[in-house]
C-alpha cells in the first residue's frame, strides 16, 4: 500500500496509508502503518484506530532475530503498543517463508518465541491467528499454497483468516499492518 515514491524507493512504509473494501456484511478500513523504528509515531497513530491487527514478522534468518531483539527490536514494541491501545485480535503473518524454504521448524520457532511474548502482554491464545506466507511468491495469501513445502504442513489461507477476523471484530474494522522492514 506504499503510495509515495520515497516509500517505494526505500522499501519501507513511512506514513499511515488507508484502503477500503466491503464484504457482504462489513465495511473494512485497512490502515498500513510503518514498522520501521524511525516512524514509530506514525505506527502509534494507526494503532489508536485499530480494532484488530496484522503483525507481520520477517521469517528470514537474522531479520526475525533483529526484530525480536530485547533492546532494539521493533516486534516487542509494536505488540506492547497494540495491547496498550486495546487491540485484542491479531493475525501474526510470518512472511518471507520462501527464504527459509517454507521450514515448519522455523515457523514453529518464531511462533514459540513471539507467542510467549504476546502471552506476557496479555494477548489470549484464542485471539491470535498464525499464518505462514510468502508475499513475494504469492503463497498462502488469497489461495491455498501451491508450493508443497508449505501446503504439506499448513492449510488455512491468509485471506480466509482475514475474513474470519472481520466477522469477529464488528461492522467497522480498522486493521493495522505492521511491517518489519530492515534498512
Q: Can you give me a brief rundown of this structure?
A:
The chain is an alpha/beta fold and 183 residues long. Helix content is 35%, strand content 21%. The longest helix is centred in the middle third of the chain and has 17 residues, at 104-120.
Characterization of this structure:
The chain has 183 residues and is an alpha/beta fold. The protein has one domain (5-178): 3-Layer(aba) Sandwich (Rossmann fold). Mean pLDDT is 75; it is low at 170-183. It is built from seven helices and six strands, in the order αββαβααβαβααβ.
Task: Give the distance, in angstroms, between the N- and C-terminal Cα atoms.
Answer: 18 Å
The total beta strand count reads 6
Overall helicity: 25-40%
Outline type = globular
Number of domains: 1
Give the mean pLDDT. 75
Largest sheet data: 6 strands, mixed
Instruction: Provide the CATH superfamily.
Output: P-loop containing nucleotide triphosphate hydrolases
CATH class reads Alpha Beta
CATH architecture: 3-Layer(aba) Sandwich
Using the coordinates shown, work out and report the CATH topology. Answer: Rossmann fold
Structural class: alpha/beta
Taken as a percent bin, the fraction of beta residues is 15-25%
Order of helices and strands: HEEHEHHEHEHHE
Low-pLDDT residue spans = 170-183
